[in-house]
Amino acid sequence: MSVDEVRDGKSTVEATVHGMWETLSARDWDGLKTYLSQDCIYLDMPVGPAAAARGPEDIVKRLKIGLEPLASYQNFTGLMVSNGSDVMYEHREEWHWATGEVAVLQFVTVHRVEDGRISLWKDYWDMRALADNAPPTWLADFANADMSWVFDATDLV
Predict the structure, then answer these.
(1) Which residue, 75, 94, 102, 156, is most buried by CB atoms nearer than 10 A?
(2) pTM of the predicted model, to two decimals?
(3) Which residues make Cβ contacts (< 8 Å) with residue 147, sequence separation at least 6?
């Protein structure tokens, strides 16, 4: 689903956020980029703003490190609260590795939507829930990944 298809039917901030998560759940990387503004900032709050990604291309590079190797990945919807441009979204993700490990991750995500695109994406979650359930090589695989996406957003978020 593209951002334009979401707009055609609903034209709301909430529909944009739901559409983006449905697209991410399908790991439709090109479709995901259509939901993100050119200067969108993405960061995992447990890691902090010094290791953010900026722009659709780098955000997808960042997300692929964790999600692309999975045997399956799914986002499950939850509570969404919006003030018109800012959205707080409580949801969960299930990560399944080919080696049999499974992690269920509880998230609260904050999005800002401007001009129909997500311009800020901050994920709050428990890194320990992932580390305790991921394959033993998970952290080393992440450390050896392409880190060209790293953007220091400390002064911007």
Answers:
(1) 75
(2) 0.90
(3) none
